[in-house]
Records
---
Amino acid sequence: MSRRPALLAAATTALGLVAALAPVTAPAVAAPADTAQERGGVRYVAMGDSYSAASGVLPLDPTAPVQCLRSSLNYPHVIADELGARLTDVTCGAADTTDYRGSQYDDVPPQLDALSRRTRLVTMTIGGNDSSVFLNAILQCGAAGLSTVGQGSPCKDQYGDSFTDTIRTTTFPAIRQALRDVRRRAPKAEVAILGYPWIMPKRDGCFPQMPVATGDVPYLRTIQRVLNSAVKRAARATGSTYVNLNRASEGHDACQLPLTRWVEPVLAGTNPVIVHPNAFGEEQMARRTLKVLSR
């Protein structure tokens, strides 16, 4: 089955929402000369979606399918380099839990195929694209915010609990099943699943850089908190390791200054794929994961 990456669709839609958006370019960054794949070591498989693939961060991984928009600076590469691990990276932008068992694109095998009984470490972010719930929340709240020029809470008023209800009833069991499948394929591996770093601050926001109405900023935070809670619960239910980014990413949301934020905004960002982690964010996600794994 071939499909257009949801993250690119999101970027296109969000760009269309803001007519004044100037073109953004990502700076070229040299790839590390010595890669973990070349050194051998612990067998490490990186799975997951665009937050794992670091979609939008250059340079692209030359070994990855072009549709996946995988970066050679994603957090799995940082972890593998630090551990001296033998990395198999199957992360792919727009992936959801169905892409663990099935092919995301015609030439992209199911992610579970990368696992074996010899795998000793697995990391991932997954769940944010399931049912398009979090993607739709960001897009719908962005559109609603523009319609009120950043005033009120039009997204909350229109959608209420629909997003969080979907996460609790559909996304949570999907993540739990995905983790069970991973553990069956790699029974000797430590399996770590990361939460998603904060996209919005606790309150106020930064309209129009992030076109979310002031009253919808805490609404989006609640949706993301429920999503991260679902990830945590799924990890606990399957004996997996949960990497909590809530505290670590506080104050590093898309509304912060370029050298502080982990996630790029819609306007005036540095990544061509908006509302996704930058290279600094990916590095910090790796550092937090390494700290949790070392306990």
Note: The longest strand covers residues 190-194.
---
Amino acid sequence: MKKIALVTFIILLIDQASKIYVKTHFELSKFPNDSVEVFSWFKLTFVENPGMAYGFEFGGLLGKYFLVIIRVFLIAGMVYLFKKWLQRGESNYLIIPMAIIFAGAIGNLIDGMFYGLIFDHGTVYDETAKHWMPYDGMAKLVPFGNGYSHFMKGCVVDMLHFPLVDWTVPESWPLIGGKQIEFFKYIFNVADSAITIGAALLLIFRKKAFPNGLEF
């Protein structure tokens, strides 16, 4: 259990430190976004998303509540599985990738559950417009419970942006002339990266992670 706790702690520390720094030092409403170019292929670009990983949204405010609840149940289920796997002496090829995924899931859950309680500004849902509304300026940390919103109404902070390809199609091209093509256009965070890396490691080492097949 110590290695699970260590992996989870390190990833959560990096994830939350990067989110808090970006949220308190970048302005959300700048157009197109508050962004700092680190390299030509890597930027820190501040966005907030109320839904799933990589900026996807799901069903407005009710969808947000649903996702938070699902994440809580998934994390609880993973704790149960960790206990079983450790008792069975499962290898690190299973335990470590799952711990990385576990940390990523907790990282985004923290944002959704608590960021509305600890920051003075954040993206909020407008019931009239049925749309998530951004804010002006930089956010500040405030005493717990004195934030801009309520429990489970916070938004996930994203900042990792890798525009490896950023190209405008020549106007002379039929149908798609003038279109902007960007890869990778999605902006994400350390928690999203952890989930993706953990899943990739399980896929790469699946024969060693699951020598007897998928058993729970």
Note: The chain has a mean pLDDT of 87.
